[in-house]
Design goal:
Length: about 240
């Protein structure tokens, strides 16, 4: 609060086994008063400016060369008055080798993977995703300014969720929740039931694999008969 001079923040995650790390930073909606730099080999590189901090949903990601130690440098920007300013942000540290298969945690924020998942990716998704729900699409809205789309889902069953993103509406009793994806994925409203999987980033659900439920059941049952399913899934 009331940023002055500078502050060095060292992040030391428990990622000693990872060879590469991706760091993502999301400023608070009222981020003011400072710029954020990453320190590399004694040099400072701008990651987030005060102007960018004013943009909602803005996320900056960069690769860290030393996974055991990531140093951020917050430098206060000159101010003409003494009004209250808060330089607040959230961060996520993602290991590029944190999963045996495709890195679903990086998918939404770093590299868009808009193509449909293949069978192997789908079977892994139900095991490793932060959320797995069966439902239908109520509405799809697009935010061209922030390059995102929002999929509003009516949920029939929650198989797993890390936090309470999908909740029961007090009035109707229906379970609902929003899922985000990149605008370039060109998501459209479609009928029928889907299996929505994905991961959470900064308190929001991001879409991973989302096959039609009947197609998923066909793939899963075939894999189970061969003993090729990486984890058990509740069929009833």
């Amino acid at each position: 609060m009331y940023p002055t001079r500078a502050l060095r923040v060292v992040l030391e995650p428990n990622l000693s086994s990872a060879q590469h790390t991706t760091v993502c930073i999301k400023p608070a909606s009222d981020f003011q008063g400072a710029n954020i730099y990453v320190e590399r080999a004694g040099q400072l590189h701008l990651v987030l400016s005060e102007a960018e901090g004013a943009r909602p949903h803005h996320v900056s990601c960069f690769s860290a060369h030393r996974p055991q130690r990531v140093a951020l440098f917050l430098q206060a920007s000159p101010q003409r008055d003494i009004s209250r300013r808060t330089a607040s942000f959230q961060y996520e540290l993602l290991s590029n080798q944190s999963t045996a298969g495709p890195d679903f945690k990086k998918m939404a924020l770093v590299e868009a993977m808009c193509r449909p998942c293949d069978n192997v990716e789908l079977l892994m998704a139900i095991c490793s995703s932060d959320f797995v729900v069966k439902g239908s699409i109520r509405n799809v809205s697009h935010d061209s300014e922030n390059h995102m789309s929002r999929v509003d889902v009516s949920v029939q069953r929650v198989y797993r969720q890390k936090n309470r993103i999908f909740q029961q509406d007090e009035g109707s009793g229906e379970w609902r929740g929003p899922i985000r994806t990149l605008l370039q994925c060109k998501v459209k409203k479609g009928g029928g039931d889907f299996l929505f999987t994905g991961n959470e980033h900064f308190g929001e659900a991001w879409l991973g694999c989302a096959p039609r439920f009947k197609d998923f059941m066909f793939v899963y049952r075939a894999a189970r008969e061969r003993g090729a399913n990486p984890c058990e899934f509740e069929l009833n």
